[in-house]
Write a structure and sequence with these properties.
The chain is of the alpha/beta class. The chain contains 15 helices and 15 strands. It folds into two domains: about 200 residues, Rossmann fold (3-Layer(aba) Sandwich), CATH 3.40.50; about 170 residues, Glycogen Phosphorylase B (Rossmann fold), CATH 3.40.50.2000. Strand 4 and strand 5 form a beta hairpin. The longest helix is centred in the last third of the chain and has 18 residues. The two termini are about 35 Å apart.
Length: about 400
């Protein structure tokens, strides 16, 4: 276990700090938040922390609770609309109050902002257990892409209220620290993201896979990885690829992921390879076997796929915010354009598509950059942040136990 040092000014932590991590999503679900949390939980366990994971029981669960090497509390959940395979946790105030009164955690960390998360913050505040939170997803921005833009302001207000009930909110970029601070969020701290450079590696490039995609030996594989959903701005991927095809008839579009737009994309771009959801080595081979990664989303808090593409040695083009703003230097280790500049995005995509040497140099530089972004350093930073929150003690400002998002804690 990594030493948990203490000073005369602060209490010395227990020999095994017990942390209850509450989340609506966790593997086997496939998304960036689930993957990030798995890395964090595994890393904390490896460092000797006593972890409890509180999450909804997922339809895809195939292993019993506790089989992962840490304590799990599985609660009721419901299917998340328009997100097949994902569920959100129902309020569980009574269950958590019993669990945490019986075996009190030293700190509660709430990773998602649904009803389960609200219950967890309420119970932690009631029991005077220090509570921290994560801001992983711009749910308020998503509303405009699903025909409920009128909900953006109420959702934003709920998220702000939710996070201001915790002692500290952790976000993945310094840019998001500033943005949330301007919106009235208090006590926001940046903790970055890492990438598994052993898994995502240029050496996984597969000529057999490229042949399966229908590519000629020197053909151009343009890839997009992520959920096939409106918030990912995939229309710009299609427009950029159409412009590329006018210059490179040997180009092929590879869409990795699944979601509500799959059928629409198949009709709109019948020549595209719809690879579906891919996992681990298979996913890594899809990245490494590609030549140009396009990521025009503007709704990410980070975008783990950016680091995965870079680690795979793939030339990456993205808007200059979130992960790209933190890690990509334009035309040095990738390419970035100003957010919302669709014409600039398409022009840069063409520039990269027609210049094989430039694309290769940027991909090699991207790999070198990714090699310095280890998960070990990220987990150490997260562990230190949780320890500081434990030392400070207590919630930021306890709320009445009966108060909740709709007037009730449950």
């Amino acid at each position: 276990m990594r030493a948990l040092d203490c000073t005369t000014e602060a209490p010395c932590p227990p020999s095994r700090l017990r942390i209850a991590l509450v989340t609506e999503t966790f593997p086997p679900e496939v998304n960036g938040v689930a993957m990030t949390l798995e890395r964090m939980v595994d890393g904390l366990v490896e460092r000797g922390y006593d972890m409890q994971l509180v999450r909804p029981r997922q339809a895809s669960d195939s292993t019993p609770a506790g089989a992962h090497g840490f304590d799990e509390v599985l609660v009721r959940g419901l299917k998340l609309p328009r997100y097949d395979g994902l569920r959100f946790g129902l309020p569980a105030r009574s269950r958590l109050l019993r669990e945490w009164s019986r075996r009190r955690p030293d700190l509660v960390h709430v990773a998602t902002e649904g009803p389960l998360g609200w219950s967890a913050v309420t119970v932690a505040n009631t029991l005077r257990v220090p509570v921290t939170s994560d801001f992983h997803t711009n749910f308020d921005r998503y509303s405009a892409h699903y025909g409920i833009g009128w909900l953006r302001r109420p959702v934003a207000a709920y998220l702000r209220r939710f996070h201001n009930r915790s002692a500290t909110t952790y976000v993945p970029t310094a840019e998001l620290v500033r943005s949330l601070g301007d919106q009235g969020y208090a006590r926001v701290e940046a903790i970055g993201r890492g990438v598994d450079t052993a898994l995502f590696d240029p050496l996984r490039r597969s000529e057999a896979l490229r042949r399966d995609w229908g590519l000629a030996p020197d053909g151009l594989a343009v890839i997009s990885v992520g959920r096939l959903a409106p918030e990912k701005n995939l229309g710009l991927v299609l427009r950029a690829f159409a412009a590329i095809r006018e210059q490179r008839a040997d180009a092929r579009l590879i869409l990795v992921g699944d979601g509500p737009l799959r059928d629409t994309l198949a009709r709109t771009c019948p020549d595209a390879v719809l690879a579906g959801t891919r996992h681990r080595e298979d996913l890594a081979a899809h990245y490494a076997s590609s030549d140009l990664f396009l990521f025009p989303s503007q709704t990410e808090t980070f975008g783990n796929v950016t680091l995965e593409a870079m680690a795979s040695g793939v030339c990456t083009l993205a808007y200059g915010y979130a992960a790209a703003a933190e890690t990509i230097r334009d035309l040095d280790n990738g390419a970035v354009v100003r957010c919302g500049d669709e014409d600039g995005f398409i022009e840069r995509a063409i520039q990269l598509a027609v210049n094989d040497r430039l694309r290769a140099e940027l991909g090699e530089a991207a790999r070198r950059s990714a090699e310095g972004l280890s998960w070990g350093h990220v987990v150490d930073t997260f562990a230190d942040a949780l320890l500081r929150a434990w030392r400070r003690g207590g919630a930021a400002q306890p709320w009445p136990a009966a108060t909740g998002a709709g007037g009730r804690a449950d």
